[in-house]
Specification:
The chain has 3 helices and 4 strands, in the order H-E-H-E-E-E-H. It is of the alpha+beta class and about 210 residues long. Helix 1 runs parallel beside helix 3.
Length: about 210
C-alpha cells in the first residue's frame, strides 16, 4: 500500500474513533441517568413501605461496604452510619452507590416483610372488630325501627276501638216486656152469665 493511500486512511480512522468515543460517552451518560432514576425509585419504594411500619430497620455493617460500627435504615429512606467513635453520618439511600442500594434493600427486605405482616394482621383484627360491632348496631337499629313503627301505628287503631265502644253505648236498650199479671178467674159456681152478649149479671151461687 502506498504512502499516499495510508495518509488518506489515517484521517478517516481517527474520525471514526472520535465518533465511537462520542457514542460510548452518550450511552454511558444515559446509563448514569437510568442508574440515578432507578436508585431514586427504589428509595421511594422503600420509604413508602417503611412509613407503613414506622420502624427503624437495622443493617449489618458488612452490607454497607464501608467501615462502620452500626448501620440503620430510618424513616424517609435514610441510612444512618455509626462509626467506632459514636459519630453518626446520615445519607439518603438513593445517593449511595447502586451496589450499596441493592445490598441495603436485600438486607432490609426480611425484616420489612415481617413488620408488614404484623401490621396487616393487626389491621385485620381491627376490621373484624368493627364489622362485628356494625352488625350488632344494624340489628339494634332494625329493632328500634320496628318499635317506632308499632308506636306510630297504635294511634290509628285506638279511634276504631273508641268508635266501636261509642256505637255500643248508643245502641237502644231492648224494651222490657210488660209483666202480665195473671187474673184469677172466679169459679163457675159463683158466677153465671145470662142474657145477651155484654149483659152480665152476677148470680148468687146455687147450693145443691
Amino acid at each position: 500500500m502506498s504512502e499516499e493511500q495510508k495518509g488518506k486512511e489515517e484521517p478517516g480512522s481517527f474520525v471514526d474513533n472520535l465518533r465511537d468515543i462520542q457514542g460510548e460517552y452518550i450511552m454511558l451518560t444515559d446509563l448514569y441517568e437510568k442508574e440515578r432514576n432507578y436508585g431514586q425509585k427504589l428509595s421511594e419504594m422503600m420509604k413508602t413501605l417503611q412509613n407503613e411500619v414506622d420502624s427503624t430497620i437495622p443493617i449489618r455493617p458488612e452490607a454497607i461496604g464501608e467501615p462502620c460500627k452500626e448501620a440503620y435504615l430510618v424513616s424517609e429512606a435514610v441510612v444512618v452510619l455509626v462509626d467506632a467513635g459514636g459519630n453518626r453520618i446520615s445519607r439518603p439511600l438513593y445517593r449511595l452507590p447502586p451496589s450499596t442500594i441493592i445490598a441495603v434493600i436485600e438486607e432490609c427486605t426480611p425484616e420489612l416483610r415481617r413488620l408488614l405482616f404484623e401490621k396487616r394482621k393487626s389491621e385485620s383484627n381491627k376490621v373484624r372488630s368493627l364489622e362485628r360491632v356494625l352488625r350488632e348496631l344494624k340489628k339494634a337499629q332494625a329493632t328500634f325501627k320496628q318499635t317506632k313503627k308499632d308506636e306510630l301505628e297504635l294511634p290509628e287503631d285506638e279511634p276504631k276501638e273508641e268508635i266501636r265502644a261509642k256505637a255500643d253505648e248508643e245502641k237502644p236498650l231492648p224494651k222490657e216486656q210488660p209483666e202480665v199479671v195473671p187474673v184469677q178467674r172466679q169459679s163457675k159456681e159463683g158466677f153465671a152469665f145470662k142474657g145477651s152478649f155484654g149483659e152480665k149479671r152476677e148470680l148468687s151461687g146455687i147450693s145443691t
